[in-house]
Amino acid sequence: MTVRYRVLAAVATAIMASGCGVVGVAQARxxxxxxxxxxxxxxxxxxxxxxxxxxxxxxxxxxxxxxxQQGQGDPSVVATKLSLPWGLAILPDGTxxxxxxxxxxxxxxxxxxxxxxxxxxxxxxxxxxxxxxxxGLALSPAxxxxxxxxxxxxxxxxxRVLRFELGGTPEPILTGIPKGPTGNGGRLVFGPDGxxxxxxxxxxxxxxxxxxxxxxxxxxxxxxxxxxxPDNPFGASPVYALGFHDVGGLCFDPRRxxxxxxxxxxxxxxxxxxxxxxxxxxxxxxxxxxxxxxxDAVVTFDSAxxxxxxxxxxxxxxFVATLNGTRVWAVPLDGAGHPTGTPQxxxxxxxxxxxxxxxxxxxxxxxxxxxxxxHGKPGPDDDRVIRILPPRNSTTSPV
Length: 399
What we know:
The chain is built from 2 helices and 25 strands. The chain is mostly beta strands. It is globular. The N terminus and C terminus are likely disordered.
């Protein structure tokens, strides 16, 4: 088996194994259904180690925050030497556009290693202090026809969503999202309903997250023109759900369910199954069940082994990139697409701090590193973009 497929097979099979460092998977909500029948697990495949070292197994300990293999000889690394890649969107031809948080630059990345990274455009006028700058990217559902890209950015006055064609002039479609030295949020995803879902942070002011009149600490839902979706739960407001500290990831599964990751800020980090009008607890409660009027997280992690970024659903697993955890957490999903079982730690310390996880239409999982953010230990090829493609027919699960 080649180096590439040892990596890929690990992602496909390890999700069903037991993991460690997880606070828990909630069992009270939602109502679970039986897990679909899966083929017998094969022996755990090896992950490639740095040159000259023995192969590394998923979850093998390493030095926290230190990048592992630096891209040379690693067929999963498709871009190197970037400046804090944050947003990532997959184009119809299988390439990706990647945004650099601090430079405002958008580059085009090929899905194969050792291909040139091509600059596309730069968005100016940004405030990249703290955790702001060029953040999430998303493609219009009608991208083949309208060629529109959406970006979440921090300016000197606010966070906002821009719309533009690649190489064109950005047009603001939603402004006035509170900004702060931390907690700027920034994740974007289009839903199967054609609306744009926007994850924001509390901008360093926790009370804003529980205030339905504020756009901070929320998941917002707007049309491609930036107008509140007509059936939003708070009338003519873009607010769809509230009570978040700093949304790091938004992703849909094939059953049209929306997952959001949230940084706990002193409590457990969360994965939430998002519903219209629900309150997810910040700052009243984090990851704690039994609070009247609040919605429990479906998965919680110890923040020392998580600090979640982006998420993506591939096959029967929800994959969550983590910063402090320097790994991907793979959360098994049951036949109804709900989290079940014990999350599995993958790629621990392999690439360092991981900011983004995006599932591509071809089943690949794209990741970005964040080793140059002042909290990691960058190697000479950081920051990087990684693409992992699980082998086909690895599961009979319908999810």
